[in-house]
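so my prof wants the structure for this chain in the tokens format not the other one, which i didnt know existed until like an hour ago. anyway here's the sequence
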Amino acid sequence: MTASPEPQAYPEPTTIQSEATPIQAGGIKGPYTLRIPRIGLDARVVPVQSNEERILEPPRDPGVAGWWSDGAAPGASQGSAVVVGHTVRNRNGGVFDNIRDLSRGDAIQVEGSGATLTYRVQSTGVLSKDEVARNADEIFAQSGPGRLVLITCDDWDGKAWRSNAVTVAAPV
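here's what i got, hopefully its the right format
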């Protein structure tokens, strides 16, 4: 497989940048909280980066979401603000355990210092690892209108995650 110019989502945990680092998104300052009322999600968001192989890994803590800090920030007028998180379906504890329950039109909120950004789900789907790699340019695009992309692992075969659930939302 050829290396894509953008990172790929991957299920294994990684170290994260300092959680106290304030990040800026569309005019509001962090730290950030991700809220999805439909699935009862209320989670802290910390900055994460892709590793040397350009694989984007979620934070070690399965209850925390990770924002790809090398890409667009939530609220940016251009590019994909990518947020990754764990699914721990058999143990209930992954921040994105119920992400597959989202439907077109569901609200997603990113709260920062003094303001809340609201998005609406535009699409949801499950892509194989190969499909994620082939579509990395689109998933992680830094051109085009600003949007929020949520990614988690899916399809546990007892040894490895075989696919990723990908949700795309547009700002309201």
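also thought this was worth mentioning. Residues 1-6, 8-25 have pLDDT under 50 and may be disordered.
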